[in-house]
What we know:
Blueprint: H1 21-41, H2 44-69, H3 78-94, H4 99-118, H5 126-146, E1 156-157, E2 163-164, E3 167-168, H6 172-194, H7 197-207, H8 209-214, H9 219-245, E4 247-248, H10 255-268, H11 273-289, H12 297-311
Antiparallel strand pairs: 1-4, 2-3
Helix pairs in contact: 2-6, 2-9, 2-10, 2-11, 3-4, 3-5, 3-9, 4-9, 6-9, 7-9, 10-11
Amino acid sequence: MAQLPERPSAWGGLSAILDTPTKQWTVIAVLLAAMVALPFVTDGYITVIVTHALLYVVLALGLNIVVGYAGLLDLGFAAFFAVGAYTVGITTQYFGLNFWLALSLAVVFASIAGIIIGTPTLRLRSDYLAIVTLGFGEIVRLTARNLRETGGASGIRGIESPWIFGYHVQSNIDFYFVFLILAVLGIIVSVRLANSRLGRAWLYVRHDEDAAEAMGIDRVRVKLAAYVVGAIYGSVGGAFFAANLGAISPESFSFRQSVEILMVVILGGIGKIPGVVLGAFIVILAPEFLRGVGDLRYFIFAVGLLLIMLFRPSGIWPARSKR
């Protein structure tokens, strides 16, 4: 009888050290306290960069559900990011909706987009799946670039930032805490999904689709659920990204963005939530810390990534395998 895949611990290789809930919650409390204090003890530049890293945490958590949980390759994840941003931009600018209603519509449209991209890829695997998802991402970007409603190549400007209980969210510190809250909520939802019945179904489909279907798992529904949930993450990140910048353009949602988000997931450790968070901070912060070396910073960063892939092919924070 085939052995069912084991659900890995959320802490991966640190499970032996953080072996009690007290230790785990202590580490979480210290990290959260440091993140809350960070904008008050650093300059505005660091705050903006870390905010960008937190945005990538949200986006990578969404892609991690598609790639890490369900095992589906997606090279067009920036399309969901774009759907969220453009929905907020168009509905607030042209139809006068408030941000929160526009955000709700962004989630709905992104879910529909997840179904649209998921349906034709259900029977595809490997290279074919990559080609279809890549094409979907480029279709969304080129559509946004050529439609009058999306502002064409110039994009949309003057997007209003949200109000929360009478407080206008508009400063860099305000959006830092917005993305910090989104990242924390994204982690909580990801953990809950991983431990849910749907999460176990994703795990079985990822390891062996045919065996999972033989066990009674509806792989069509399970795959579509992964795309839809991932799309929701992407749309929420895109909506707040648009509100933060106040302007968007098609170049913000290029194939490069999809590759960077996928790189975060692979670099940190596919399917590992702490690894995804760590990968997002490395991908965003490392080039900034290397600014002192000038034009060589991207070369050094690329060499560093290559070394990580050579010596840690499963990612920086992979799941601890038990034999």
